[in-house]
Amino acid sequence: MTLVHADPRPGGVPEIAVKRLAPFDYARFPLRPSAIPPRIALPPRDLLERLAEEHVFAELAEAVMLSFAAENGARMRAMVAARDNTAETLEALTGLARRLRQEEITGEIVELATASLSQDQAGDGTG
Question: Could you report the per-residue pLDDT of 20-46, keeping only the tens digit for each?
Answer without folding.
Answer: 888 877 787 788 888 788 788 889 899
